[in-house]
Amino acid sequence: MSRVDHMDVAAYALGVLDEQDMERFEEHLATCWACAAELESMVPVVGLLSDIDEESITAMEQTQSNPVLLDRTLGALRTHRRRARFRQVLATAAAVVVFGGLTGVGFASLTDDSAPPNPYAGPSTGVPLDPPTNRPGNPGDPGFGGNAQEGDQRNVTDPSTGVEATFFLISKDFGTKVDFTLGRLPGPRTCRLVVVRENASSEVISTWTVPPGGYGTNSNPQRLVLSATTSTKLDDVKHFEVQSVDDKGVASPLVRVPAT
């Protein structure tokens, strides 16, 4: 190809070639990697020129710019702003890049590097959901309305105090985990959870305070939801007991929950 063909890259990128010269250059571009690489490097410059308005270029003229160059640039900008033509320039250049990749010659992407990548939703790697259960539950139970609560459920209402308790007893390698809710628990008071073992020994595994409105009461319908752990194995537990503790440290039982 002639040197004129090689010198047409800028004119082609700006869209100032006539139809015949444009077709001739595109035929040349399909086989000339030097021109394809030069066209690729000019795409960002052409993109910047598209953001310059004629008023800005007119101001350049007032700073002793070359008037001949100014006229040619203005004409190139008007032509370039025909977006359909510019898209054709990009498509042609992209086709050359694809062809270059097939022959072992690669160029940088002609697209804007600042654009964020398309989001990709990969497979979930979270913990599997607990299997569904047919076990009945109360609205105040831990996990009620969501995934099935782990553990053996115990629902108890103390006939003397009226305190309602729902316990989930979970056997663990370290001992036993207890998830529980309490209702009809008046306040104010201080409470504690005690584990009583088969050998008659006991251990306090959780303490809390109850506000004046209580939990699961007319003043405060929200039930109390808590968790506790003990090193005692579930097989060694006789029962759990929620106790109320007065200012002198004297405890009185509120509700007892058997382990089996």
From TrEMBL:
Gene3D superfamilies: Anti-sigma factor, zinc-finger domain. This is RNA polymerase subunit sigma. Residues 10-35 form the Putative zinc-finger domain. The keyword Cytoplasm does not apply. Keywords: Membrane, Transcription, Transcription regulation, Transmembrane, Transmembrane helix. InterPro entries: Anti_sigma_zinc_sf (IPR041916), Znf_put (IPR027383). The chain crosses the membrane at residues 89-110. It comes from the Bacteria. The keyword Transmembrane helix applies. Residues 116-159 are annotated as: Disordered. It holds the Pfam family zf-HC2.
